[in-house]
Amino acid sequence: MIYQAASFEDLPVAEPDEIARLRHRDSAALAGVVGRYQHRLYRYLRRLVRDPAAADDLFQQTWLNVVREIYRYDSRRSFDTWLFAIAHNAAMDRLRRKTGESLEESGCQPIAAEPDALSAAITSQRTAILALEMAGLSAPYREVLTLRFEEGMKLEEIAEVTRAPLSTVKSRVQRALETLRERMTARYRKEDLL
Amino acid sequence: MTPHETIRPMLALSAAGLLDAAGERRVREHVHECAECAAALDELAALSADLCRLPAPMAPPDLLARAEARVAEELAAQGGLRQGATLAVCAGLFAWVATLATWGLYRFLTGGAGWLAWLVLTTVPAYMAAGAVAVMFASRRRLERSLL
Q: Could you write out the DSSP letters of every residue in chain A?
């Protein structure tokens, strides 16, 4: 069975005229674009940095950087990719400064906290457990997963956002999925034994 | 390397929908004959489908308003700086024009002696004043915006 990519057509995107107005620092256009991308950008940042306060701050920082750098944006390219690349840079800067967060692909952090794990297990929702396991992956793995499966980005777009070669993106997706599969299998096997 | 070993790393990419047509064909042909890889692909495909349905973290309700306010502040600051810079350029040009315009009078009165000192004395204060005005203007604009 081959995975059928979900439809991402309903993802809100910026209108070309909005971007043109944004270049002229039109505050109404800015409010429109920020509102449109609010949930997508926040979700990406939360997956990447995990901490809600940090994601909150990075969300604001990203839009500040957008306003500062909008003159560099090439309208022939995707605004989504450009925006997420700016968010990626801001998040990576923060993660590099932060102690305890590994940016290595092999690095896996202990998953959030036991109450979350417990509540996820109680609700018996596979996706909740999966979200918890995903949060335990290293940042580069979390990032490619959210960009691929939640943002619906293609390989080339993910490479552009993360500024990584295509081969690296492929290997990250592959390892992230395999690690998740192993963890989910181990978790369900453990629960079966209880 | 056996076909099994070659195909194995491609399963996750197939599940993620990231293989090209040729790669997909190779995977399909292999899983048709290999039960182990077929089972792994099924699991990875189910995982991929679940990843599309992860519960999304909710943004704080006031996040949008806070972001817009912070960006508006930045835009106001940029606007103030731009106007300040424009003012400084205009003042500088005015200083040069004034200097050149009065050169004839100065030459008539002094015969052109000490022209370098005259040039410095007429232009430097004008530039300093222009710079100070520009900075004050930008600061005032920023203060006004922050009070709105």
A: -PPPPPP-TTS----HHHHHHHHTT-HHHHHHHHHHHHHHHHHHHHHHH--HHHHHHHHHHHHHHHHHHGGG--TTS-HHHHHHHHHHHHHHHHHHHSTT---SSS--PPPS-HHHHHHHHHHT-HHHHHHHHHHTS-HHHHHHHIIIIIS---HHHHHHHHT--HHHHHHHHHHHHHHHHHHHHHHHHHHHH-
